[in-house]
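User: Second chain of the day. Same drill as before.
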Amino acid sequence: MRSAKYSGPGAAADVISVVEVDTPKPGPGEVLVQVGAAGLNPVDVKIRAAAHDFGVIRYSDLPGWDVAGVIVEVGSDVTGWTPGDRVYALAAFPAAAHTLAEYAIVAAADLARTPSTWSTAQAGAGPLALLTAWQALDAAGVRERQRVLVLGGAGGVGHLAIQLAVARGAEVVTTGSPAKHELLRGWGATDVVDYRDEDGLAAIAPVDAVIVTVDDTLPPRGAVRAGTSVITITGFSGSQTAQLTEWGAAPVQRILVHADGAELAQITKLAEAGRVDVHLDSSFPLDDLAAAQERVETGRSTGKVAVIVDPTI
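Assistant: Same format as last time:
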């Protein structure tokens, strides 16, 4: 089968190729998925550029974690799944998964049925960002009638955090460039502030929770009161954590997403009800994986970047 491969650390165009490798066989508790599409995330480009593990996130020269496609073979001890099922998953994360290939092994526990309302590209691009947003909202304890600030609302995680928070009955304030304000409101944000507008940021009233999706960014002081949950997916410095604690934020927490098919299944129900949609910034064929990664590296993509492995799926 054809698979993406890294030759070592470096720029995308210098180290990415597509090679022939053996098609894997599913073991107990696993299925073999014929891949239609896979997604890219900032972690993909960071780990490719460095070619080493990031803490518990495992590096592999055969990349990929997001996946959507069709089950073609089921391993022993697998129940509830059969060949022909259309599925999507965040496979194995933070362990290596090798989904940027024509076929991928996925643990049955990581699988969910693909929403009928989404294209294969949307389903392939979504899982890591969807689960990151879901788990961040869980960590923040977001519930009905709360007010949530999403910093970086037009990004891969941000645009999904807005929709999932609204689906929980929360009111959402978010930040983004003026050109994206209409999109942000369309995803359900009631208040949108230009991230460069210092006065607008300072005017944000206290919220119950803040979801930070942007590197090296603190929420505006006025948004944080005693008991405001502040959850980051990128991490805070020690001084930033101390500042938030001084302001009364609690908890202040960085989360690392983990694979979870049951949570994806809950997201599928919301998608089927029209309450969450994956916005595609762009799609690239597997042979153009380097260009796809370069698009992610710009930091200017809106929503998600998809890699199309088999356009017939």
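The longest helix spans residues 127-140.

User: Great, on to the next one.
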